[in-house]
Amino acid sequence: MTVKKAVVAGAGIGGLVTAIGLRRAGVDVTVFERRTEPGRLLTGGGFMLWHNAFLALRRLELDEQVGAVSSEIFFHEFGSDQGRMLARWEIAPESHRIRAPAVALRRSDLNALLLEEAGDSVVMGTRCTGFEQDPEGVTVLLDDGSAERADVLIGADGMRSVVREALRHGHDLPPRYAGYTAWQAIAPLADETAVPGGTFFNLWGRNGLRFLYCRLNENEVYWDAITADRTSTAFDMLRKNKRAVMSGAYAAWPDPVPRIIEATPDEAILPVDIADRPPGRELAWGHGRVVLVGDAAHPMTLNLSQGAGQAIEDGVALSGQLVRESDVGAAIAGYEAVRRRRVDAMVRNAYRIGTLGKWRGDAACWARDLVMRACFGTLAKRGTYRVMMDFTP
């Protein structure tokens, strides 16, 4: 191992997992995070972590800790806005076979756990503004005018990464807007008769609408209202707040969708325009002593619930390569070699699934529902698990 000192730009999931993996191997790691307080990182809604993420976390002996702040998912249920069941996946047998669960959890709970594990390596309120590298190392430039010398720089600073921009010398294609917005929130809703635990609900509707929800714990429900752009442009955001707009859009949907929205404070709803980067136009994830992980390398849409999982896999794979290889460049090349094909498939599949949710007409949506009833419980599940579990750390 030639890496003695590493700098990570960004204290998100991918950056922290990478830092933890390197620290446990004895590498001196500093994580620079632009946000000024840890509490600013402990925000966001909820999400799912599938089995593959737990297998990656197990490499760092973090799987049990993450499991302790999560709620296990036993079923993934697909339905329509007319109240019809389209498909139902039994997750528990897969968890038993793979020996790793699928869970739902708060993003803030995962971030808090990872921050604690990363310890004093995280420096808040400091942003990476660029870098200069040479055969002997990389000099990381910081926004306070100082610099940090390291053997490797890991860009984990999100979709609009500063490290990525510098790596591409300011010439990079923008992210691809997927054509829809996710209105994400956590609702304080304790009634388990309305939203039972252990099931992730995935509802598909007309007019470019979808609605996802699941119970996080006995008191909270996480939800995503996904609205296609042609639908969103008709929302009256001048005279109505976000909750009123969502309540109107989903008023005719089956229970408990209207009840979940009504229980949510307006300030808890965060609209996020969904985007990714198409694999076909992507350059390498690293060069020399600089490399990207997570959304900085390969943002993907939310349709496979794999964004966080793939960032975790990145962190485990990259830290392992940097520890095993005697040459930093070879480690970065090896990391991309084991990750690229898998991640590209995830990005493509997630984008394709998302296009189905933008359909508006009754006839098209009826045909989509028919196909989902015919194959989502069998072929789609097998295909998803085949891609999901093709995991090489």
Features:
globular; 393 residues; alpha/beta; 36% helix; single chain; 13 helices; FAD/NAD(P)-binding domain
Would you kindly provide a brief summary of this structure?
By secondary structure, this protein is α/β, with parallel strands linked by helices. The chain has helices at 13-24, 51-59, 63-68, 92-98, 107-118, 162-167, 229-232, 242-249, 257-262, 307-324, 328-356, 362-375, 379-388; strands at residues 5-9, 28-33, 46-49, 71-72, 75-80, 85-90, 103-106, 122-124, 128-134, 137-142, 147-150, 152-155, 176-188, 199-204, 209-215, 220-228, 270-276, 286-287, 290-292. It has a single domain (5-174, 277-388), classed as 3-Layer(bba) Sandwich (FAD/NAD(P)-binding domain), CATH 3.50.50.60.
Structural class label: alpha/beta
The poorly predicted ranges are none
Topology, number of strands: 19
- Strand order of the main beta sheet, please? 6-5-14-15-16-13-17
What is the makeup of the main sheet? Answer: 7 strands, mixed
Gyration radius, in Å: 21 Å
Describe the protein.
The protein has helices at 13-24, 51-59, 63-68, 92-98, 107-118, 162-167, 229-232, 242-249, 257-262, 307-324, 328-356, 362-375, 379-388; strands spanning 5-9, 28-33, 46-49, 71-72, 75-80, 85-90, 103-106, 122-124, 128-134, 137-142, 147-150, 152-155, 176-188, 199-204, 209-215, 220-228, 270-276, 286-287, 290-292. By secondary structure, the protein is an alpha/beta fold. The chain has a single domain (5-174, 277-388), classed as FAD/NAD(P)-binding domain (3-Layer(bba) Sandwich). Strands 6-5-14-15-16-13-17 form a 7-stranded mixed sheet. Strands 8-2-1-12-19-18 form a 6-stranded mixed sheet. Strands 3-7-4 form a 3-stranded antiparallel sheet. Helix 1 (13-24) packs parallel to helix 5 (107-118), helix 1 (13-24) packs parallel to helix 10 and helix 10 packs antiparallel against helix 11.
